[in-house]
Design brief:
A seven-stranded mixed β-sheet has the order 2-3-1-4-9-5-8, with helices on both faces. The chain has a two-stranded antiparallel sheet with strand order 6-7. It is of the alpha/beta class. The relative contact order is 0.22. Its EC number is 3.4.19.3. It is found in: Cytoplasm.
């Protein structure tokens, strides 16, 4: 049976939970479109996160890798279009590292584009009544670090799709961030399962607008 690897992060930045792992772990061993889902937690640590990710890829030999992370303050589920070759941390990671203007992969390209059908995934989520959009930046923290490292690993492997999804706070987190948007865990679970389904089934992405004016 084919495998899908989906990852979430441990809590960071003083949060007690990370919505990415709280939701992703519920997908472990589920079957979606004939593929078995394998869920793994990544440390919110530069370098180490990629070590754990690469080990999980080696172990599961997936046809699809979907990394998921928290984007507190975002109002919807965002499918990341691009990862850039730089670490520039506003806050330290969970081991106190705070790289500034550091290249992720020496001599690597400036950026990689997601190989997921991101616009088809956004469209499917919206049709299911779940707010979603294409994002033009994965930031410069550990999420971007993982997305870039993942796509660098998969470069040239057309049989394996990969990319990154950011999700909002859970309501229990937003309660401590007055005014911040949130999304229920059950909604996020439905969204990620649907995202996996579309990513597995769609080979040619939709040609629809998904850009931003700023």
């Amino acid at each position: 049976m084919q495998k899908v690897l989906i990852t979430g992060f441990e809590p960071f930045g003083g949060e007690r939970v990370n919505p990415s792992w709280e939701v992703v772990k519920q997908l472990d061993q589920r079957e979606v479109a004939g593929a078995r889902v394998v869920a793994r937690q990544l440390p919110c640590v530069f370098g180490e996160a990629l070590t754990v990710l690469n080990a999980a890829i080696d172990e599961s030999q997936p046809v699809l890798v979907l990394a998921v992370g928290q984007a507190g303050g975002r109002v919807d589920i965002t499918l990341e279009r691009v990862a850039i070759n730089v670490d520039d941390a506003r806050i330290p990671d969970n081991q106190g590292q705070q790289p500034i203007d550091r290249t992720i992969v020496e001599q690597g390209p400036a950026a990689y584009f997601s190989t997921l059908p991101i616009k088809a995934m956004v469209n499917a989520l919206r049709e299911a009544g779940i707010p979603a959009s294409v994002s033009q930046t994965a930031g410069t923290y550990v999420c971007n670090h993982v997305m870039y490292g993942l796509l660098h690993r998969l470069a040239g492997q057309q049989a394996v799709k990969g990319g990154f999804i950011h999700i909002p706070y859970l309501p229990e987190q937003a309660a401590f961030h007055p005014g911040a948007p949130s999304m229920a865990a059950q909604t996020l679970l439905i969204a990620l399962e649907l995202a996996i389904l579309v990513a597995l089934q769609v080979e040619q992405d939709l040609k629809v607008a998904g850009g931003a004016t700023h």
